[in-house]
């Protein structure tokens, strides 16, 4: 075995470690924002439950790597040398993109970054190979699984539209029932709300979080999978009785365990199902390396072996879980990404991160025109009743232990978690490629709009922020495709020398972004001190 390939494997695993850090720093917002924004508990308590979810998900993950090995390209058409160069190109692209988004505090999808990185690198490698034989574009596309790519793109659009509308409707109805003076309504509606919320969260945990884990084929899990309506009804009545006692007799705030449980469930699911986004490609490369390790000259071996199933070794699962937990606790860039979503969904006034734009103004004006049309057909008495239910004069938010006000209340935090987990569960059951990032972020935006958190003085800023983030998601796909395509061609042409050159370039960029992020943090701290 040439030392060249041993170095490539080492580079892949070094990139996997970096990808874990940068990926979790971005994806942590998926399961932390509702708890942090509502200040349901001190930050260290929230992080403890999130860490338990991450560790549990990592340990129970099966680590299936179909997407990394064969989901978007046909591995039997690539040689060992080509497939290793392809994987290195993907990992470089993934690390650089995620670090860039973290630097500017923008949430993006690690799934999209991985998928389009694989697609671009496969196309780049195939294009270089075909150019050597004077083939055409049709030959290049024969290397690619185009049906899978189309399905993922369709899932992106569907997840954005469905998530926004679903969260808007659910939050609107919930607020009509509870109003902002929700504590006075809890004795009457609290047990029902808690039962619905916990039933959906636990159902989500079974259908999404445990899917593909060692528990997937246990008796309980299989019964729940075969009897979904019945299991939901049983859990609803069970939780209803529990919450009836805690809410009405013991006067316990049941919204807090709902938010904590939802945070744990999303963290568990993230770790169990999305871990392969960070380590799937390096492990696929290692699997390819093992398959040819006894060959003196393995470069030309075709990689049909990647059609075989592969799992993540238990030791790697433990190490990956540990890295993710440390990142959640220590990453400053993770805090920046969290601030972005919390700021966009914040109830009340404050410094807006995003400026106004003409596009956002146009969207707001169009929405106000539609709102005026709706008001024209809705009787005034109904409008007055609705406005009364959204009256904030009786809303007295409680300061957290750190003395700061929550960005939104526990009702909205609960709705965010319940709707997000329900949609992801539903998408999983239909085998739709929904992104956890897309769903959780858009759900938070839809609920904040329904809650009238977007007011006259900030609505254009908030809309521009959403446009910026959503636009960034699609740019992730474009950039991942283009950059990995270019990297793959460079590596195909230059071999190890090209890999070392790209590695040096990546280290330089990461150093620069880290320095820039530190400078921006200091500026924000100075502004905050001046404001107070």
Structure report:
The chain has one domain (3-527). The chain has 20 helices and no strands. It has helices spanning 3-27, 29-38, 43-59, 66-71, 80-103, 110-132, 137-141, 146-178, 186-209, 219-226, 228-249, 255-274, 276-291, 314-330, 332-345, 358-377, 380-389, 410-429, 436-450, 459-531. The longest helix has 73 residues, at 459-531. The protein is globular, with a radius of gyration of 24 Å. The model has no long low-confidence stretch (mean pLDDT 82).
Q: How would you sum up this structure in a few lines?
A:
The chain has 20 helices and no strands. With 532 residues, the chain is mainly α.
Notable characteristics:
532 residues, mainly alpha, 20 helices, globular
For the terminal residues, how far apart are their CA atoms? 63 Å
- Number of domain units: 1
Which structural category do the helix and sheet elements fall into? mainly alpha
User: What is the arithmetic mean of pLDDT?
Assistant: 82
- Please provide the ordered H/E string of secondary-structure elements: HHHHHHHHHHHHHHHHHHHH
Number of helices: 20
What is the assembly state of the chains in this entry? single chain
Strand residue percentage: under 5%
Main sheet characteristics? none
Task: Assign a percent range to the helix content.
Answer: over 70%
Evaluate the radius of gyration.
24 Å
Spans with pLDDT under 50 lasting ≥5 residues?
A: none
Number of strands: 0
Principal-axis shape: globular
Topology:
Elements: H1 3-27, H2 29-38, H3 43-59, H4 66-71, H5 80-103, H6 110-132, H7 137-141, H8 146-178, H9 186-209, H10 219-226, H11 228-249, H12 255-274, H13 276-291, H14 314-330, H15 332-345, H16 358-377, H17 380-389, H18 410-429, H19 436-450, H20 459-531
């Amino acid at each position: 075995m040439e030392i060249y390939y041993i170095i490539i494997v080492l580079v892949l695993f070094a990139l996997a470690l970096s990808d874990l850090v940068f990926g979790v720093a971005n994806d942590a917002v998926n399961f932390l924002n509702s708890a942090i924004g509502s200040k349901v508990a001190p930050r260290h308590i929230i992080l403890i439950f999130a860490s338990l979810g991450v560790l549990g998900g990592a340990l129970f993950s099966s680590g299936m790597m179909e997407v990394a090995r064969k989901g978007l390209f046909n591995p039997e058409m690539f040689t060992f040398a080509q497939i290793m160069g392809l994987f290195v190109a993907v990992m470089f692209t993934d690390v650089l993109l995620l670090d860039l988004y973290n630097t500017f505090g923008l949430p993006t999808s690690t799934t999209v970054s991985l998928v389009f990185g694989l697609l671009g690198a496969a196309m780049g490698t195939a294009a270089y190979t075909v150019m050597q034989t004077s083939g055409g574009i049709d030959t290049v596309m024969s290397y690619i699984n185009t049906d899978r790519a189309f399905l993922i793109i369709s899932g992106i659009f569907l997840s954005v539209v469905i998530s926004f509308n679903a969260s808007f409707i659910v939050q609107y109805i919930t607020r009509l029932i509870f109003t902002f003076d929700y504590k006075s309504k809890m004795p009457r509606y609290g047990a029902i709300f808690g039962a619905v919320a916990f039933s959906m969260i636990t159902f989500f945990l079974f259908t999404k979080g445990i899917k593909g884990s060692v528990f997937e084929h246990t008796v309980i899990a299989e019964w729940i999978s075969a009897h979904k309506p019945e299991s939901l009804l049983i859990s609803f009545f069970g939780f209803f009785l529990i919450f009836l006692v805690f809410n009405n007799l013991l006067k316990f705030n049941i919204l807090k365990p709902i938010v904590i449980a939802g945070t744990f469930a999303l963290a568990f699911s993230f770790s169990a199902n999305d871990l392969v986004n960070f380590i799937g490609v390096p492990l696929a490369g290692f699997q390819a390396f093992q398959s040819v390790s006894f060959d003196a000259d393995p470069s030309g071996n075709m990689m049909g072996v990647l059609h075989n199933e592969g799992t993540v070794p238990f030791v790697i699962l433990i190490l990956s879980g540990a890295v993710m937990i440390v990142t959640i606790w220590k990453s400053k860039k993770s805090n920046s990404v969290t601030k972005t979503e919390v700021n966009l969904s914040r109830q009340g006034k404050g410094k807006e991160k995003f400026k106004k734009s003409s596009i956002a103004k146009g969207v707001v004006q169009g929405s106000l025109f539609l709102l005026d049309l709706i008001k024209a057909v809705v009787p005034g008495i109904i409008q007055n009743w609705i406005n009364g239910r959204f009256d904030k004069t009786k809303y007295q938010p409680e300061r957290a232990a750190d003395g700061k006000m929550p960005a939104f209340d526990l009702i909205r935090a609960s709705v965010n978690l319940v709707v997000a987990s329900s949609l992801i569960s539903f998408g999983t059951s239909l085998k739709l490629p929904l992104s956890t990032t897309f769903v959780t972020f858009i759900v938070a935006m839809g609920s904040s709009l329904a809650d009238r958190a977007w007011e006259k003085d900030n609505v254009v800023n908030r809309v521009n922020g959403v446009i910026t983030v959503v636009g960034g998601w699609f740019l992730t796909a474009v950039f991942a495709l283009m950059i990995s395509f270019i990297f793959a061609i460079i590596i195909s042409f230059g071999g190890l020398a090209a890999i070392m050159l790209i590695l040096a370039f990546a280290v330089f960029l990461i150093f620069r972004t880290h320095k820039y992020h530190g400078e921006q943090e200091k500026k924000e701290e100075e502004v905050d001190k001046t404001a107070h």
